[in-house]
Amino acid sequence: MSLPSKSKIDKSGLALAKSKYKDEVECIELEEVFDEYRKTHLQPLSETTLELQQLLTNYGAPYYIAQRLKRKPQIIRKLNRLSVRLTQLQDIGGCRIIVQSNSDVDKLHKYLIDSISAQQVFTIDRSTDYRDKGRDDTGYRALHVILERSNVHLELQIRSRMQHYWSESIERTSVIYGYHLKENEGSPQVIQYFKTLSDVFFEIEAGREPSIALRLKVDSLRSVCEGIIRESDRHKVFDSFINEDIILTLTEKELRNPAGLNNWILVFDWNAGAFVSWDIVSRNPNDAVETYIDYERMFPVESGYEVVLIGSSEVATVRKTHSHYFGIETYDNILENLDTSIVGFTRNIDIDIGARQILACMQRRRFWGKKTISKDTLGNHLCKHVLTFESSLRALAEKNLIQTSTLNGGFSLNIRKKSDIEQYL
């Protein structure tokens, strides 16, 4: 179908967000208009993501990049929250780049301004910087760049790893709590915790030591907020885990579909804290979004599911850019204490909870250097509670945090990585 008029598109947004329609027939028609409009964003988004990667070939610093098409429930909530028209939203198609530090955000931004101005395919419409003060409602910090391509607006988010860690932490907590904290839902105290934590992180990124008063405020709020979250009558997830084997599975699928940018649909069940389905879908934008819509109907958000359409030229990147799907642990401590956050933020997305449990067990029993333990003893006895034992052990070996003895084949912690291991723990 051809793209409907702007007024019809806005009417479809009203129908879904405000239930404004004559009858069920009109509702179905307007939902199709809504889906068609969202679909028009995927091709320009995918092409722009690939071109950004090409522009960054000579950038010379590490980064992660991925894209996503905004989920229907998110769009509906935003239309209600901001009282805007559907055609006014500029983040239906979004791309995210994560760099190491806040100063790297500035460097990348300048690099992109220079690079994009030298080509004619898409332009920078404007940039909005939320880093210095953070958003008033939640403390969210990032640099947003609105790109325009063939009259379609796309949002590029540029974040440092610390800003991204904060964002993923609030996403994870929102799931446990049952309120969309980044959208200013929930207890003012829980939101204040994240605003204060954002202020602390900002001080650290600026090279300043957070004041004692600020640190005490975070820890005080944390203890109060954990009680609020535990007592929430909304949906919670406890004692769940993510199997890191999913990335290995996705990587194998990716190898069978090489070159370019692949579209992935992930279906996550927040009732169980586990993936229900994941698969590569067509690179054709129309087919990909049709499949996305089918999945959204099969796995409704009202039943606790989240359906995500993510594009990436390397699926392992998703582990970095959407880490809250891979960081669900047991929830003895819902919110991390401040020292854990500060020390762990750069490493928290590098290894899973199972790997940290293995490290902790081996450190506690002093398996360093020449003192080794067999894989069977470790997996069947000392770490039998680690649900992801095999994949977590492989991840530790790949990072050279554990080593294998040439004499007996046993495992030990790498003494040369002692400081790294202590930081992970």
Outline the structure in words.
- The protein is of the alpha+beta class.
- The chain has 16 helices and ten strands.
- The strands form two sheets. The protein has an eight-stranded mixed beta sheet with strand order 3-4-5-2-1-8-6-7, with helices on both faces. Strands 9-10 form a two-stranded antiparallel sheet.
- Strand 6 and strand 7 form a beta hairpin.
Uncertain ranges = 238-242, 342-349
The overall pLDDT, averaged over residues, is 83
* SSE sequence, one letter per element: HHHEHEHEEEHHHHEEHEHHHHHEEH
What is the percent of helical residues? 40-55%
* Beta-strand percent range: 15-25%
Rg for CA atoms: 23 Å
Report on the biggest sheet: 8 strands, mixed
Q: Give me the side-by-side strand order of the main sheet.
A: 3-4-5-2-1-8-6-7
Oligomeric description of these chains: single chain
Contiguous helical run count: 16
What would you call the structural class? Answer: alpha+beta
User: What is the number of E strands?
Assistant: 10
> Could you tell me how far the N terminus lies from the C terminus, measured between alpha carbons in angstroms?
55 Å
Globular, elongated, flat, extended or rod-shaped: what is the shape?
globular
